Amino acid sequence: MQSEPFQVLRQIPGAGSVVLSGEAAGSGPPIVLLHGLSATRRNVVQGSKHLLRRGYRLIAYDARGHGISEPAPSYEYSDLVSDLDAVLARLDLERAALVGSSMGATTSMAFALEHPKRVPAMVQITPAYTGNARAGAEDWERMAAELERGDLEAFARVAQPDGVPERWREVAREAIRQRMERHEHPDAVAQALRQVPRSIAWEGLDPLESLELPVLVVGSRDEADPMHPLAVAQEYARRLPQAELVVEDEGQSPLAWQGARLSGAIGDFLGRAGYS
Question: Which residues 6+ apart lie within 8 Å of 268 measured at CB?
């Protein structure tokens, strides 16, 4: 099924404008995909067409400064939420299911907390936000500095968790390098690496307890990835009134990186939620 490229022009008072680039495919109930920090729109369901085959309309866009979207003066979560709102307006969508990974999970949750009636269902893939600015600022700073220097090999070494088994390290680093090569504005990604983790999307986790909509929380047992601990996903599932938690079995590779299986789990969840 052919994708339809689109662009969203965001006017920023006193700072010009920003153009967000995305694509849509399919003609069924809309699903908006939101990627993580330093990723692109390709990195949510990893290119899987499963949800298209199930009759959904998939909409994905590169966050400001990422992929082929233009740089912006600020990368606060409030900016990312406003960008999501602008994408929905550009496509004439009052309501859409939201599927977000990491930074995208936080963005979609923040949007849903502000506009619960506009989100019929939501998927949180490896959520990491705990209601305050994230720790590990030194690692984010090192990644940003290597990216500004144009040293993708050094960036990959910093970005790769220490616990990755030796036999997988080069494969993982190559995947990181390929992901970073998709960015037209690496300096903008570096700025986002410095700002997003320090940004406050909402205060504390108590607000999750009042969010009455179906939510699938996708956790990960990958202990080599300390940035997305399973405990955060479990806490989301505990607090959200209509949450389901899914996580890979012990010893399996993370569900979040298996596009076909992940999309299958999302499609099944949306069917149970009556979004079809």
Answer: none
- Residue 99 falls inside a structural domain: yes
Sequence-ordered list of residues with C-beta below 8 angstroms from that of 50, at least 6 positions apart, any chain: 259, 260, 263, 264, 267
Average confidence (pLDDT) per 10 residues, the chain, 276 residues: 91 91 97 97 95 97 98 97 98 98 98 98 97 80 92 84 59 81 95 95 97 97 82 97 95 89 98 96
Q: Give the predicted TM-score (pTM) of the model.
A: 0.94
The contacts of residue 254 (CB under 8 Å, 6+ apart) are: 126, 220, 221, 222, 225, 248
Question: Which CATH number covers residue 120?
Answer: 3.40.50.1820
Assigned domain for 189 exists? no
Range of the domain at 52: 4-133+200-272
Residue 116 lies in a domain: yes
